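Quick one, tokens below:
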């Protein structure tokens, strides 16, 4: 789009990296379209967050996050309520948010989408005033992330640290005792995990972990009853074979609001892959259409 001004915030720790070659390519793509790209690189999450807060008040048409889902969520959080358009350069490992919105993973195509795409309004979820785009969880996953970060600080690579952390978490196999209020229904569970999603996740077959829409205006809650390690493996196998939602030990519910109370006053909570310690109760809400994201323009029908 000719004349467009974009602030592009890159996380230096992104898995795909952002070197001088990519910087030059990005500037070339924008210059060819008659647009301007102001690129800044943050070396820590705190630095990226500060850059995003500043960009939210500056005169840019679009603010772009370059990194993985954690970076995308961090930058998007600064734009809620500002009316600014949000763009994504997927540079992470999984890039769930980009894939769910069909934003190209290829670097050049993703950059070109920032110029040729169209804005759509998507929902944002929050827990105790902290925003997330994909999901939030309690139990096993925050434990794994916490242990993985510990191993990385000791010098392990990301994937070896993740494998070690997963084994450690399954060996300890922590349960969380929760009282969950879903709209006006109260549930009590002892469970290895609670998963709260921004809109409905496909929980079955090889599409597991994908969303067909991000504008349904709802939270989705997933959790299990207390079960053994073997039971958890069995549940995963049922998911792969497309039979998860029929499992008597698996609960899936849709809601506008979810409240989670635990015995502990402070709890590790994962949000888009990042973990924070949050004071309970956890108050989850959905903000319909709170973020305007640049996605590929609809293809025109050819006669």
């Amino acid at each position: 789009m000719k004349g467009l001004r974009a602030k592009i915030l890159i996380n230096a720790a992104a898995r795909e990296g952002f070197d001088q070659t990519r910087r030059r390519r990005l500037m070339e793509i924008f210059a060819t379209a008659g647009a301007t790209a102001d690129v800044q690189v943050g070396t820590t999450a705190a630095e990226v967050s500060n850059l995003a807060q500043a960009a939210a008040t500056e005169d840019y048409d679009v603010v772009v996050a370059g990194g993985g889902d954690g970076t995308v969520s961090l930058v998007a959080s600064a734009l809620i309520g500002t009316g600014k358009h949000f763009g994504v350069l997927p540079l992470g490992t999984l890039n769930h948010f980009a894939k769910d919105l069909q934003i190209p993973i290829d670097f050049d195509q993703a950059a070109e989408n920032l110029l040729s795409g169209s804005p759509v309004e998507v929902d944002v979820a929050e827990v105790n005033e902290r925003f997330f785009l994909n999901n939030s969880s309690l139990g096993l996953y925050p434990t794994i992330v916490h242990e993985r970060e510990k191993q990385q600080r000791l010098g392990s690579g990301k994937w070896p640290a993740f494998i070690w952390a997963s084994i450690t978490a399954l060996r300890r196999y922590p349960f969380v005792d929760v009282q969950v209020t879903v709209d006006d229904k109260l549930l009590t569970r002892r469970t290895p995990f609670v998963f709260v999603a921004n809109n409905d996740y496909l929980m079955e077959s090889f599409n597991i972990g994908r969303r067909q829409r991000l504008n349904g205006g709802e939270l989705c809650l997933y959790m299990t009853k207390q079960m053994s390690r073997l039971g958890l493996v069995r549940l995963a196998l049922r998911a792969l074979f497309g039979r998860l939602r029929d499992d008597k030990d698996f609960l899936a519910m849709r809601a506008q609001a979810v409240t989670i109370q635990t015995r502990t006053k402070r709890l590790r909570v994962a949000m888009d892959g990042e973990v924070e310690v949050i004071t309970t109760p956890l108050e989850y809400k959905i903000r319909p259409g709170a973020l305007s994201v640049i996605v590929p323009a609809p293809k025109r029908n050819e006669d």
